[in-house]
């Protein structure tokens, strides 16, 4: 029951229900709402945009990342972030536990949902000691970019916080930088971006690529924390500014350069010359009004342009990151493919695992005295094993993206110089690839195996059962073996063996297909 004071409070929300599924709010106008647990902001939403309208009111479901924490007691407070007016407050018990709810990470640091509904350490939970290293990192990366010939500037939420508030936005969690190239053709801008990456790598930075013109530059702080700063490339063409990943608007170059400055937490940093024009292009004309639930509404035409020019190399990366994070506590096991390779190639000198995941097969071969190379486009997966095997000369892990041609050509050419005989294994990867990715896999395997009698050993889900195998392996959907047979023929290869096997004797179990492929005809 709502208290009388809540019913009489001006502007109060008519909250009909708060339970483990979410909030039920009576009919109301559109409004922005902050949700706090025990006085700390956890989530923000627009009532009508993010809710589901029903006969009994508007239902807001708790975002999925928050649900595992909803077991215990907390004071749920709804507030208007523009005025700090309390719209609703009630102590609620979720689940069976009676202790207070704490939305924190494994280290006990507080988490909140950002605008992408990810649980992160937002700036409003950090003190000056946490912020100073971030500012140092921004300064360092801007300096490094200047050394490679780029006048970069604060962008997106970092620019918004500096220009509007003079500080980091409380509900934000990262730092963004941008630059506008002197080139005006996408191909030239891409070539420049890879030049920048090589230069930064030569300077000792670790760089992760988002797309053809967007990077994350990693800065290791004194306590070992890996802080990544996003660097978004852009260019001007025929009076339009294109800036990864959201902006394609009519613009003037002198609205960017020469750069101005703005204060961010007491330090001066470069920002575009015309702050209003830049932030209006980014966040719209209401950029001066804080919106912790802001969502970019990129036009479909802009998305199509950027996809065609620059994207496509990160397809599936987030899904694999989620899979490896979800299964991190599972004990890694050696695959049947690895054992098959060892049996068929007793004189094997180099084993290559494409889509190595956490590296169990790589470690197993290394322990047998075989040099092993683990390739994956999700470094999070193999990072722990790579650290454990850092001093093992038989083990190598390498970032490898089957959707990026330079990886498909360069990495196999490097491996082809390693001792033979060589063999390639690939377990539950092809199901997650399209035709282009699978053909690149076959091309890479053919290059690795060139000059040897080695073979590619492929395992994939061919029939999905009711046993949860697809989810456990990350395969998701089955792949018709006939498709793979046709693609192998297209690549110039031949299938030596094609075996379909049930993963268990249980009724309704899934089926996997194992193929052995070579190009020695």
TrEMBL record:
It comes from the Bacteria. This is Class I SAM-dependent methyltransferase. It comes from Nocardioides eburneiflavus.
């Amino acid at each position: 029951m709502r208290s009388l004071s809540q019913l009489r409070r001006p502007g109060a929300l008519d909250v009909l229900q708060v339970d483990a599924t979410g909030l039920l709010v009576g009919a109301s106008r559109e409004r922005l709402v902050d949700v706090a647990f025990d006085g700390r902001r956890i989530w923000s939403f627009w009532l009508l945009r993010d809710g589901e309208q029903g006969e009994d009111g508007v239902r807001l479901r708790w975002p999925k990342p928050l649900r595992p924490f909803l077991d215990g007691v907390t004071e749920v407070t709804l507030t208007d972030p523009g005025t700090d007016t309390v719209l609703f407050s009630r102590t609620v018990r979720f689940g069976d536990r009676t202790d207070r709810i704490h939305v924190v990470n494994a280290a006990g640091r507080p988490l909140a949902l950002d605008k992408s509904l990810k649980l992160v350490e937002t700036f409003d939970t950090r003190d000056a000691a946490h912020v100073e290293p971030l500012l140092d990192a921004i300064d360092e990366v801007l300096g490094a970019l200047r050394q490679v010939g780029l006048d970069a500037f604060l962008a997106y939420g970092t620019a918004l916080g500096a220009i509007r508030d003079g500080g980091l936005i409380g509900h934000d969690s990262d730092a963004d930088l941008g630059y506008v190239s002197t080139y005006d053709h996408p191909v030239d801008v891409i070539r420049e971006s890879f030049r920048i990456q090589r230069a930064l790598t030569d300077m000792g930075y670790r760089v992760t690529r988002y797309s053809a013109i967007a990077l994350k530059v990693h800065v290791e702080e004194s306590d070992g924390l890996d802080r990544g700063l996003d660097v978004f490339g852009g260019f001007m063409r025929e009076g339009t500014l294109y800036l990864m990943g959201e902006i394609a608007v009519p613009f003037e170059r002198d609205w960017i350069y020469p750069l101005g400055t703005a204060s961010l937490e007491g330090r001066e940093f470069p920002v575009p010359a015309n702050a209003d024009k830049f932030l209006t292009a980014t966040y719209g004309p209401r950029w001066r009004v804080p919106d912790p639930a802001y969502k970019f509404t990129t036009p479909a035409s802009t998305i199509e342009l950027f996809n065609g020019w620059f994207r496509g190399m990160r397809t599936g990366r987030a899904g694999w990151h989620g899979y490896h994070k979800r299964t991190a506590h599972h004990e890694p096991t050696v695959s049947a493919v690895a054992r098959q390779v060892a049996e068929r190639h007793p004189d094997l000198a180099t084993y290559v695992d494409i889509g190595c995941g956490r590296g169990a097969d790589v470690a197993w071969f290394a322990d047998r005295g075989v040099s092993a190379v683990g390739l994956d486009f999700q470094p999070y997966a193999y990072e722990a094993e790579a650290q454990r095997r850092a001093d093992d000369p038989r083990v190598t892990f390498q970032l490898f993206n089957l959707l990026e041609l330079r990886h498909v050509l360069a990495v196999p050419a490097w491996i082809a110089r390693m001792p033979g005989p060589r063999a390639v294994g690939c377990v539950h990867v092809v199901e997650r690839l399209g035709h282009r990715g699978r053909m690149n896999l076959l091309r890479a395997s053919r290059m690795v195996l060139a000059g040897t009698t080695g073979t590619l050993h492929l395992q994939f889900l061919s029939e999905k059962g009711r046993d949860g195998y697809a989810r456990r392996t990350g395969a998701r959907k089955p792949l018709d073996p006939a498709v793979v047979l046709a693609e192998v023929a297209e690549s110039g290869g031949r299938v030596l063996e094609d075996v379909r096997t049930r993963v268990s004797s249980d009724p309704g179990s899934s089926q996997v297909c194992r193929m052995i492929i070579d190009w020695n005809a």
